[in-house]
Amino acid sequence: MTDNVLAALARYDTPTVCNAIETFDIRSRDEGFASSEIRCVFPDLGVMVGYAATATIRGRGTPEHDYGVEPLVAHLVQVPGPRVVVVQDLDDQPGHGSLWGEVSANLFTKLDCLGAVTNGCVRDLTEAHDLGFRFFSGSVGVSHANVRVESAGEPVRIGGLTVRPGDIIHADQHGVLVVPAEIAADVPAAADRIVAQEQKLIGWMRSPQFSMNGLADAWRQATEADTKETGNVS
């Protein structure tokens, strides 16, 4: 994947990218994105697009080892940049201890990471925001507790979304999704078509020509346009 593809994907918000992916009929419409459990902490920081580096953590109990973040860093450098760190909190009640704060945000920014996605918690919000390091999390917390990395470089599950190392993550104020690599280069063009068709439909809705009698046909034409372009049934 080239940087140009990532930059092109970053021009669109997640709902538009999600709609564009649907036109390729590559996965079910109810898959490929995290649930509303995962919230964008800094909506003003805009779209984040990068390759996933993955890890699991725990914050409760007494650690049986003292690895720090070394396993995660060792895995992360094997993933192309820019990177998004996706961390599954394995505790029964995720978010007891935070891996993410001012120090980790500075470290992972240095390692070409744009932000973190976790079902656990984050903290030091002002400092992370000032750094431009994005947080997508299940909660905001106070303590790091006994947080430790349990594994790195394996598939994780965050908000119902399975993320594998190297997956393309697209995230913004609306949420988090995975862009299938096999269609990533074609998604921007599909997104452009969707935007054009939506604006055409909205323009008609706002015009004096709008009528209830014409609504069904106008809606059908807008939703069928991308199917004809991609050759897939959306």
UniProtKB/TrEMBL annotation:
<feature type="binding site">
    <location>
        <position position="123"/>
    </location>
    <ligand>
        <name>substrate</name>
    </ligand>
</feature>
<dbReference type="Pfam" id="PF03737">
    <property type="entry name" value="RraA-like"/>
</dbReference>
<comment type="similarity">
    <text>Belongs to the class II aldolase/RraA-like family.</text>
</comment>
<dbReference type="GO" id="GO:0047443">
    <property type="term" value="F:4-hydroxy-4-methyl-2-oxoglutarate aldolase activity"/>
</dbReference>
<protein>
    <recommendedName>
        <fullName>Putative 4-hydroxy-4-methyl-2-oxoglutarate aldolase</fullName>
        <ecNumber>4.1.1.112</ecNumber>
        <ecNumber>4.1.3.17</ecNumber>
    </recommendedName>
</protein>
<feature type="binding site">
    <location>
        <position position="124"/>
    </location>
    <ligand>
        <name>Mg(2+)</name>
    </ligand>
</feature>
<dbReference type="InterPro" id="IPR005493">
    <property type="entry name" value="RraA/RraA-like"/>
</dbReference>
<comment type="subunit">
    <text>Homotrimer.</text>
</comment>
<dbReference type="GO" id="GO:0046872">
    <property type="term" value="F:metal ion binding"/>
</dbReference>
<dbReference type="InterPro" id="IPR036704">
    <property type="entry name" value="RraA/RraA-like_sf"/>
</dbReference>
<comment type="function">
    <text>Catalyzes the aldol cleavage of 4-hydroxy-4-methyl-2-oxoglutarate (HMG) into 2 molecules of pyruvate. Also contains a secondary oxaloacetate (OAA) decarboxylase activity due to the common pyruvate enolate transition state formed following C-C bond cleavage in the retro-aldol and decarboxylation reactions.</text>
</comment>
<keyword id="KW-0479">Metal-binding</keyword>
<keyword id="KW-0460">Magnesium</keyword>
<dbReference type="GO" id="GO:0008948">
    <property type="term" value="F:oxaloacetate decarboxylase activity"/>
</dbReference>
